[in-house]
Amino acid sequence: MNYRNLGKSGVRVSELCLGAMTFGEADENSFMHKVGADEATSRAIMNAALEAGINFMDTADVYGQDGLSERVIGAWFERDRRRDEVVLATKFRFVMGGGPNKSGASRYRIVRCAEDSLRRLKTDRIDLYQIHCQDITVPEEETLRALDDLVRAGKVLYIGCSNYAAYRLMGSLWQGRTNHGSSFVTLQAQYSLLVRDIEREHVPLCREEGLGILPWSPLAGGFLTGKFERGKPPQGGTRLGEKAERFARYDLERNWKILDAVRGVAGELGTTPSAVSLAWLLAKPQVSSVIFGARDIAQLEANLAAVDVELSTKQLAALDEASAFELGYPYSFIAMTQASW
């Protein structure tokens, strides 16, 4: 396992991050119903991940229901005593509980969410505390001040954001700098061979400001595992196969061409489409760690294979070409004029 700095911070994290969204058996009211791992399996996955060199884990208060994923991790910390081996990341922002302040990024709510997560996780600190999505109803200064106070109190060590527009992220970084407070060190964003939109503005911004990118859904909901075939119905027992409308969003000619390219490279290297897809992200210099999920030990081991995959310049170019996307205005105009002037 290789290790990288978490953005511009000094802490080192494994280049693969174990995502905990599948931890715990959620009931029918949760979006993770029937696609999670029971507590015993989750505990085995966490122990195996640490033995393989993974020291970075990511969860959120909303995963499962009523903080289920955090509670599973907290029980593991309490039982197996491995808290200090983990750089622990969690998130807040979405609906938890009831009442008029059941969601959002107000100061009132952030402090309460942090205390609740600390209690469920059975720990005295959150190593990376992330806002799960920007909240346009709350001034960014209020959100940052609350997070900075948690850092100064020692309850949070670093802060990050997820699902932010580039303009909002730049404004937030400017406020942190000018107010001499804490600033985001990471951006967690959807990023894969299928979804490369952040390359328009977010990737250059993170490069200039020193933020580490933490890709989520690097296998595009499982599409890039290669389990699915063009023109055939999806398999049951998978997240994409559970609902026809979910699979339909991926059943596009561009995506099948990308998967064909991934399979081609995997065949050349004698590895899996999953490993190639993760390795493509690991080759991006601004990526600090790639977040992947696992419902059993077999899935964990399959994803771990990515750290041993070295893509050649030719293979990277083939994957880039297959997954190329329309930049749109003004980026296409800039590229055109840059080439001719």
Mean pLDDT: 94
The helical percent reads: 40-55%
What overall form do the CA principal axes indicate? globular
Distance between the termini: 45 Å
Which CATH C-level class is it? Answer: Alpha Beta
Succession of helices and strands: EEEHEHEHEHEHEHEHHHHEHHH
CATH superfamily: NADP-dependent oxidoreductase domain
- How many structural domains? 1
Helix segment count?
13
Strand residue percentage: 5-15%
Radius of gyration: 20 Å
Name the structural class: alpha/beta
**CATH domain fold name:** TIM Barrel
Q: What is the CATH architecture assignment? A: Alpha-Beta Barrel
Number of strands: 10
Main-sheet strand order equals 9-8-7-6-5-4-3-10
The parts where pLDDT drops under 50 for at least 5 residues are none
Main sheet properties: 8 strands, parallel
Q: Summary?
A:
By secondary structure, this protein is of the alpha/beta class. It is 41% helix and 14% strand. The chain has helices spanning 39-51, 68-80, 107-121, 140-152, 166-178, 202-209, 239-242, 244-248, 253-269, 273-282, 297-304, 313-322, 331-340; strands spanning 3-5, 12-14, 16-19, 56-58, 87-92, 126-131, 156-162, 184-190, 212-216, 290-293.
